[in-house]
Specification:
Blueprint: E1 14-18, E2 21-24, E3 29-32, H1 35-38, H2 47-57, H3 70-83, E4 89-93, H4 96-111, E5 115-119, H5 128-132, E6 149-152, H6 157-167, E7 171-177, E8 179-180, E9 186-187, H7 190-203, E10 206-210, E11 234-237, E12 248-252, H8 271-286, H9 289-304, E13 312-316, E14 319-323, H10 331-337, E15 341-342, E16 344-346, E17 350-353, H11 361-378
Parallel strand pairs: 3-15, 5-6, 5-7, 7-10, 10-11
Antiparallel strand pairs: 1-2, 2-3, 4-12, 8-9, 11-12, 13-14, 14-17, 16-17
Helix pairs in contact: 2-8, 3-8, 6-7, 9-11
Length: about 375
């Protein structure tokens, strides 16, 4: 049997990882500023994380949600405390797509409506409704197609008001990333998020804050949407939640009342997943990583904006987009193969930085030096 060939692969095999470093099969060290797509939040193989998982695995790794799992309640309490939303409710699942799928389903149950408002450039996942609300027709199979999703221009308050005026009493939910990841590190403005909140209140629609990539402290706020000063009804989360262990969840406002069977999952909230997620929150809290993400991110963004070859620098905290002119499209690849630095990308020419939240200033400087050196070579 062969693997189903859906991923373009770099010819690198990672065999060891620690902090913000990874090593390949030949022993070559790389600086990891990608974190496996924003997943590594507290650093690779963090000692507390490894200890937490090992200890739990030696007790019980899995049992289903048919029994009490006290770790789930411990996780809910810790998440409420660290996120600043202690009165919200937690439903646990396995991936970001699944989190968004359940959030959209919850919204439809709540107001008995079908239409979803999403935005140009959005990426919400690959499951049925999540992918229908994703602005990439290439990955929407015919079976996923629906007339229930309304795509609007990003950050356009007039278009949003017009959509609600026309369809407001049919709209179940508005779903938006605080900062678009796949879309190229495009930030939703404060006033746009505030407008979503006010229109959802007016029409009894549900405001879903997709925090799968932009949440969990990455931007200097726990959820990137928080900087707008309004509360969403549902926050979805995944990537940084488990530092590599598959775990996801939705944080649900008190106004939503559950009933047995409303949502469900086999693997969601299992013992190991909860241990991983608790370890992440404990390290974030103990090591003040949200503040570090803000400070190191501010430093990186400030230094990047001094580099004249860069077209634009976008983002907040440690979610940064570096837009380059088309003539410098090779820079990302050269950073990896010449300078041994992993970064992400967004089409056509945006380098995405999504490192662990404990990235040091020294590591940030190492990246800046490599980027400047590569740009100097490319522009000679």
């Amino acid at each position: 049997m062969h693997l189903f060939d859906v991923y373009p692969l770099n010819d690198i095999e990672i065999t060891k990882a620690a902090g913000s470093s990874v090593w390949d099969a030949d022993g070559q060290e790389y600086l990891d500023l990608y974190g496996g797509h924003a997943v590594i939040s507290i650093g690779h193989t963090h000692p507390h994380y490894v200890s937490r998982l090992t200890e739990q695995l030696n007790k019980v790794g899995f049992y289903s949600n048919s029994v009490k799992i006290p770790l789930q309640q411990q996780l809910a309490e810790k998440l409420g405390q660290v996120s600043g939303k202690p009165d919200y409710q937690l439903f646990l699942c396995n991936s970001g797509a699944e989190a968004n799928e359940n959030a959209l389903k919850l919204a439809s149950f709540y107001n008995n409506r079908k239409k979803i408002v999403a935005f140009k450039g959005a990426f919400h996942g690959r499951t049925s409704l999540a992918v229908a609300a994703t602005d990439n027709p290439k990955i929407v199979a015919p079976v996923n197609e629906t007339d229930n999703v309304i795509f609007l221009p990003h950050n356009n308050e007039v278009a949003l008001e017009e959509a609600f005026a026309a369809h407001g009493h049919e709209i179940a939910a508005v779903i938006i990333e605080g900062i678009q990841g796949v879309g190229g590190i495009k930030e939703a403005s404060k006033t746009f998020l505030q407008k979503i909140r006010s229109l959802c209140d007016e029409y009894n629609a549900v405001y879903i804050a997709d925090s799968v990539q932009c949440g969990y402290g990455r931007t200097g706020d726990f959820y990137s949407h928080d900087y707008a000063g309004v509360q969403a009804d549902v926050y979805t989360m995944a990537k940084g939640m488990g530092n590599g262990f598959p775990v996801a969840g939705i944080s649900i406002a008190p106004k939503f009342k559950p009933w047995h069977g409303m949502l469900g999952t086999t693997f969601g909230g299992n013992h190991l997943a909860c241990a991983a997620a608790l370890a992440v929150l404990e390290v974030i809290e103990q090591d003040n990583l949200i503040q570090n993400a803000k400070e190191t991110g501010d430093y990186l963004i400030g230094e990047l904006r001094k580099i004249q070859e860069i077209t634009e620098v976008r983002g907040r905290g440690l979610m940064i987009g570096i837009e380059l002119p088309e003539s410098l499209a090779q820079v990302k690849k050269n950073l990896l193969f010449r300078h041994r630095i992993f970064t992400g990308e967004a089409k056509p020419n945006v380098i995405r930085l999504l490192p662990a939240l404990n990235l040091s200033k020294e590591q940030a400087d190492a990246f800046l030096d490599a980027l400047k050196a590569e740009l100097a070579v490319q522009t000679q």
